[in-house]
Structures are given as C-alpha cells and as structure tokens.
Amino acid sequence: MRELLKYLKEYRRESILAPLFKMLEATFELFIPLVVKQIIDVGIGRGDSGYILRMGGLLVLLGVVGLAASLTAQYFAAKAAVGFSTSLRNDLFAHINRLSYAEIDRVGTSTLITRMTSDVNQVQTGLNLFLRLFLRSPFIVFGAMIMAFTVDVKSALIFVVVIPLLSVVVFGIMLITMPLYKKVQRQLDRVLLTTKENLEGVRVIRAFNRQEDEMERFDRENSELVGMQVFVGKISALMNPVTYVIINGGIIFLVWTAGKQVDMGIITQGAVVALVNYMSQILVELIKLANLIINISKALACAGRVQKVFEEKTSIGEKDGARVPETVSAAAGSGETVPYKVEFRDVDFCYSGSKEPSLSAVSLKIRPGQTVGVIGGTGSGKTTLVNLIPRFYDAFRGAVLVDGQDVREWPVKALRARIGVVPQRAVLFAGTLRENMKWGRKDATDEEIYRALDIAQAREFVDGKGEGLDLFITQEGKNLSGGQRQRLTIARALVRRPEILIMDDSASALDFATDARLRRAIKEETGDMTVFLVSQRAATVRNSDVIVVLDDGQVAGVGTHRELLDSCEVYREICLSQLSPEEVQ
C-alpha cells in the first residue's frame, strides 16, 4: 500500500481535512454525556425546566454541528478515495498495456482483470473508511477514557482494563484474517479464470456436450471459494460477540462500582449515566474499528496484489539512444548497400516455463518487397517466428534485424508503426467499420479505407450490407462471419500502409478462390511491401518468392516451391498431403 500512496499526492488537502472534520465531529460527541450529566444532576435534580430546555437545545446544536462536520468529512474522504482509485486504475491500465506478451502470458488475463476491477475497488473502499474512521474511532476510545477520568477516577480505572483487552481481541483477529483474505482473493482469480474460459469457449463446450462437466468444475471452484470465505468470516464474526461480552462485562462492573459510590454520596447519578455513555461510546467505536480493520485488511491484501502487477517489468524495454535507422529507399538513393529488410541471425527462443525451445538456430535473410511464405506443422514455431519481428517477444539468443538494425535498438513505437499484423484470431471492436479501420491509421480517408477493403476482398460484402463505412460492428465482430472478420482485419492492417505485412494464418476461414484472389491482390497492390504469409496451406504459400519450412522449431528448408520439392522432405510431404500430383507440380 505504501508504494501506491503517491496517487494521494493530488488529494493531500482532502486527505487531511476528512479526518480533521471527523475528529471535530467526535469532539462534539464526547461532550454529549457531560451535557446529559448536567441535565440529570441539575435540571432534573432541581426541577429546573428552563435549564433542561436550554441543555436540550445544546444537545440538538451539538448534533447538528456534528452532522455537518460528518457530511463534510464524508465529502472530502469520498473525493480523495475516488480520485485515488481513478489515477491508480489509469496507471494500472497503462502499465498493463506496456507489458509484453511474455508477462501477460505469465500473469494471466483473468488475474489482470481482477486487479483492475475488484482489487482496485476494494482499495478504494478501504481508503475511504480509513480517512473517515481510523482517526475518529481511536480518538473517541481514548477521549472517552480521558473524559471518564474527569468524571470519577476510581470508576474510570475500569476503562484502563477494558480497552487493552478489546485491543488484543481486535488486532489479534486482524493478524489472523489478513493472510486468509489473500487466499480468498487468489481463489477468486481461479473462479474468474473458469468463468472466462467458459464464456470464451462456450461453442466448444456445447459442441462436445460438456456443459454438465463444466458446471461441476465451476461448482467445485466456487464451493472452495465459499468455504474459504465462510471460514474467514467465522473468525471475523468472533469479533462482535467477544467485544460485546467484554464491554457489557465492563458496564456491569462499572454500574456496580459506581452505584456503591452513589449510595455513599461520592458521585452523582448523572455521573454514573455519563460513565455508562462513555463505555457505550467505546463499544460502538471499537465495533466500528473492528469492522474497519477487516476492510483495511482486505484493502491491504488487494493493494499488495495490485502492487505486484506494477512490479512486473516489461521485457521489451527501450534502450537509451534507440534510434530509427535510415530507410531502405534512403540507403539505396545514397548508393549504399541496401540492407535486408528482415534478418534472423542464429535466433533461439523459449517461452516462459517451457523446457523445450520453440525456435532453435533460425537464420534467415529477407529482401525488401519479397513475399515470404512460412509453413510447417502445428507447433512448429511459425507464429513465434513472426512475433519476433514486431518485438512482441525478444529472442533468447541471436538477433532479429529490421532494415539492418537489431529490433532491440529500435524505438518500439517506431518499429511497430512500420509493421502491419493480422493475427490468427480475428479481433474487431464494437463501433463502426470506419472506426475499426482507423485503428490502422487515424488519419486514413474513406478512399484509402475502401482501397484496403478492395485488396482484402471485403468490399463486396460491405457494400451488400448497405451501410458502407457506417456499418456497426458488435463486440468482437459477432454480427459477422468468420471469413468476413478475417478480411476486415486484413483490410485494417493494409490501411496502415506498412513496410512489413505479417499475415499469421489470417485466411484460414476463406475458401480457396477468395484466398487466391486475396494473395493476388496483395501481390499486385502492395508494391515494395515485404509480406509474411504464415499458413498451413501449401496452396497459400506456393507462389511466394521465398518459402520458409519450419519443423519442430528449426528451419527445415528455404527456397521456392520448385526448389523445396526437390530438396526438402518436410515440404514435399506437406504438399503431397494437401495437393493433387498435378497441383504439386
């Protein structure tokens, strides 16, 4: 929590005024038993109705002023807590967006969602309660004890015994429950993960008729969460009865002790009532303090979890002095040797937690304007290979170069601005078609968007919808077919006019005729763009300038279709399994 307090800097005034106004309210509250004492001893004792009315008016005034102070404190506390959580959530979201694929894979999306929502809300609630009650409750507890000594020293000694006993109970339960609440939050992550997997994989679950199994799995995870919550709830629930027993025992002993003193004429009846009121105030405030500590325990546990996300440092850091190298055209115009557009130099890569490398000793040289087909079996490392180009991951060994410069020497933003990526999973966002296309380039004109749609073979179905670029797309493009979504994601990448276009198995939902027209249009319309076509279809990559065959993370062959048929057994097997003998040739 300490590291997160920097977000309160903008709300220092509110963070100071909120507890001050609460203490002002508490001060007025501490005077109430003394006023009641005077009403009993003087007003009722002497039968002075005027005095009773005057003191009654004073009680009302103390209540009104205390209420005003309480409302003011609540305003400042809420402003500080909401402002704190807003700044925290904004920075957390920005930090998550700066993490590389490696950190997001390791932490998990369900965990990050929990941190952004449930955990931040819990921290906000804890901070609000802290500003309002953490100083007020101890102030009243010790203030009531001091005021009791002003009434009667002997009777007030009971307070000296009761308050430490209550403190032991309160803080003892707090120390026990804090680690338990952390376990509850971890189990909540598991429940959210199960929910996320079920919602995202609902079609697969129903296709395999696994609804009952998934309901049982969710019930198991949820029951474990409930069990943990009930267990920690039982421990927390001990606080109220134990504190009530201690306080009521104190009140009984107080009345018995003070009653004997009244009989002896040492103190008045009003003094006894005042002492009982102070003891009751202590009871109420300690119950509030107990509940406050429970909430703060939860908030501290959640704050620690949020802090751990901030402690996740991206592995895709930017080096000091990172620069954009000369472009290929500038180098060519100056008479210098044109560098390879993309080059892999003895690259190894292994995913976090994996024992086997995904890529081993990969070396490739791709010239500007070439179309590169990347083919191989499932798990051969095709996607991993192209993900190293825009630096979604960093190579463990070796180097990936773009325009002759190691991608780790590039400014990340400048590097990715030159690359258009069409991922395996076609993801669109809720909004109009125009808004989705402008993800590629914010200042793209309608003409440029339509040109990209033409190349991506998406213009026909877009025109058929009758809404043009104002066509509304629902979340994740659920109102479109798989093939339509894929074509739109290709168009979105083309709108960017990238120097390097990566299509990661992005035409798998297209029929062969549409796929062929798409590849032909990209070849004809993209000019000197370097294109990577990742696919498991031999027909998709066969006409590429260069075909890279991957097998178990290693390069099995590099060359043209004809060359690889003669030299690469892996490629030949793929072609023979997918194409007829006439098509292979």
Q: Brief description of this entry?
A:
The chain is an alpha/beta fold and 585 residues long.
Description:
The protein is α/β, with parallel strands linked by helices and 585 residues long. Among the domains are: 2-311, ABC transporter type 1, transmembrane domain (ABC transporter transmembrane region fold, Up-down Bundle), CATH 1.20.1560.10; 424-497, Rossmann fold. It is built from 22 helices and twelve strands. It has helices at 12-46, 49-98, 101-107, 109-134, 136-151, 153-200, 202-207, 211-237, 239-263, 269-311, 328-333, 382-387, 412-417, 433-437, 446-455, 459-465, 482-495, 512-525, 538-541, 561-567, 569-578, 581-584; strands spanning 342-349, 359-366, 371-376, 397-402, 405-406, 419-422, 431-432, 472-473, 500-504, 530-534, 546-551, 554-559. Helix 5 (136-151) runs antiparallel to helix 10 and helix 9 runs antiparallel to helix 10. It is elongated, with a radius of gyration of 36 Å. It starts with 11 loop residues before the first helix and ends with a helix.
The SS-based structural class is: alpha/beta
CATH class identity of the domain at 2-311:
Mainly Alpha
CATH architecture of the domain at 2-311: Up-down Bundle
**CATH topology assignment of the domain at 2-311:** ABC transporter transmembrane region fold
Number of helices: 22
How would the global form be characterised?
Answer: elongated
- Terminal-residue CA separation: 67 Å
| The CATH fourth-level homologous superfamily of the domain at 2-311 | ABC transporter type 1, transmembrane domain
Q: How much helix, percentage-wise, in residues? A: 55-70%
Biggest β-sheet: count, sense, barrel? 6 strands, mixed
Q: Report the uncertain regions.
A: 328-337
The Rg value, from CA coordinates, equals: 36 Å
Strand portion: 5-15%
Number of strands: 12
Order of strands side by side in the largest beta sheet? Answer: 6-9-10-3-11-12
Average pLDDT figure: 84
